[in-house]
Amino acid sequence: MILISQENFQKRNIILTIYLYLTLSIGIYLLKSDFQTVFSDPNFDNVFLMIIGLLDITFTIMILNWKKWAFYGLLITSLSIMIYNLVNGNGILFAALGFLGFIIIYLLLLLKKDGISGWENLE
């Protein structure tokens, strides 16, 4: 379980908290299949997706701990996935959908709790 001090937890909007934990849970679940795929077929695509999955989980945990650099890390992984989808011949709409999660986190960071947004709490 991720330890969050009561002081920090009280400042975070509940919708942001729920979304971050949901994203974290889904990321861990998907990482399991990424590991299985890498061990059965260790080509570049599978290894790349596994590394991106690990980074996404790490950055999500760090956002829960109020680290601003983790937000920018999620931006980089989202852009990487978008470029990966475009290079592999997926359409622009499908590639842009990979960026949607990042946009949702950004918008949720703007929500306020006790007059303070999540963005203002990031260190």
Mind explaining what this structure looks like?
The chain has 123 residues and is mainly alpha-helical. The chain has helices at residues 6-11, 14-40, 44-64, 68-87, 92-97, 100-109, 118-121, and strands at 112-113, 116-117. The protein has one domain. The protein contains seven helices and two strands, in the order ααααααββα. Strands 1-2 form a two-stranded antiparallel sheet. β1 (112-113) and β2 (116-117) form a beta hairpin. The longest helix has 27 residues, at 14-40. The two termini are 22 Å apart. 17% of the residues are buried. The model has no long low-confidence stretch (mean pLDDT 87). The chain crosses the membrane at residues 12-31, 47-64, 69-86, 92-111. Keywords: Membrane, Transmembrane, Transmembrane helix.
